[in-house]
Amino acid sequence: MPAAGAVAQSPPPIALERWGSFHVGGREVVVTGQPVREVLFSPGGVPARVDPNGTYLMGGMYAQYMIPANPRGQAPMLLWHGGGLTGVTWETTPDGREGWQHFFLRRGWPIYVSDAVERGRAGWTQIPEQTGGQALTLTVDNPFERFRIGAGPGSYLRQQVLPGNQFPADRESYLNFVRQVVPRFTTTDALALDAYLALLDRVGPSVVVAHSQAGLFGWRAAQERPDKVRALVLVEPATIGDPAKVAALRNIPVLMIYGDYIAQDARWPAIRANGVRFAEAVRAAGGSVDVVDLPERGIRGNSHMIMMDRNSDEVAGLVQEWLAARGLWR
């Protein structure tokens, strides 16, 4: 702790060798049978005749990379966000602290933060003709009550936070989080997985850190590209991989992390139980899976958005130690 009256020191600048972005993946699709229409693109302009029939490129993914000047991670780290969110999940916290992107950059990991198919800076296409469904959006109270921040249904209106919860749930911070929420689909998983595989093919062998919905893509990508995943870190994965391909995971160390308040939640006991059963199947096939329940480590109060909670650096430190113990950091 700094001495009384001492001024808190800002962290040192992050030195980057390279920083940039790219889009990857996607496929061409042909749309036919749509009516031609006139569109006024801006007030006072001249209407244009738009024919929506033709060839589209859909299913692309956006990725931004930051390569530290003095890398210490033995592989790039890919940060994959959850449903209804974007790569911003990893970049900052709702109350303005540095995110896991910064935490791991400061320790010398090359970082790739992506926006999955149909999210953020990734491309869109005709809806519902090519996505198979309409996008889902969330009300302001939904994450508060579903992500184990508030104390169940109606808690947003009551502003009742779970006792000891670490998520920055003051109104300004919480609304900063809600501003990050984007539409999501339940029908584009195959497109998203293809794009994640294309990302792995481009970047090469990597450490994959996946949150929530992206747990599916982390498991499946490791099963489809076992030579491209050096380690898999799953932060409250929402689902499991392919039970028929557990043997593909035998040489990939896996860390699964779960936060607090799970036993009292309506959905998370079943979600966690499914994940643990899948982990047991991977172990039975010769794989290595470590399941960490943070409260058992004395780390309490974590919501579903662990990387945004006020103790997020403590959890990131646990991940860092786990990766270092597997020879992936020097």
TrEMBL record:
Signal peptide: none annotated. SUPFAM superfamilies: alpha/beta-Hydrolases (SSF53474). It holds the Pfam family Abhydrolase_1. Residues 205-244 form the AB hydrolase-1 domain. PANTHER family: HYDROLASE ALPHA/BETA FOLD FAMILY (PTHR43194), PIMELOYL-[ACYL-CARRIER PROTEIN] METHYL ESTER ESTERASE (PTHR43194:SF5). This is Esterase.
